[in-house]
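Before going further, learn to read the protein records used in this course. A complete example follows; check for yourself that the lines match position by position.
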Amino acid sequence: MKSALVYIVSVAFLLSTLAFAADKSATDTTKVDPAKTNVVKSAKMNARGKVIDISDSSIKIERTVRGNVEVMQFALENPTENVAVNDTVKIAYINEDGRLFATRVAKVDSKKKEVKPVGEKSATGNK
């Protein structure tokens, strides 16, 4: 008699767990996370060349790329100091909607230093 009572209670327990499992709706278990918004950053680029025209709002440089001479014009946020026509400059810029905006203008020293390649032995040095 006791074993029959244990079987009836265990069957009732199993059936009740199935009934509770069927009550959960599908919308409760599948929550959709809001989509992440990707912020698109403008690529920062560099250009080095000779200044051919400068004003408070823009600067125009001439640079040589693979043997071709190219003229680039940049919009300036702030007027540059100590930069004149025929100076060599390095400009950090971004491209927004087809316009080039200079973020930094730096004057480059025109003296080039001779750099010895790494791993090369000198002719007078010990071997």
Summary: The domain at 44-107 is CATH 2.40.50.140 (OB fold (Dihydrolipoamide Acetyltransferase, E2P)). The mean pLDDT is 78. The helical segments are 2-23, 26-29. The longest strand covers residues 44-54.
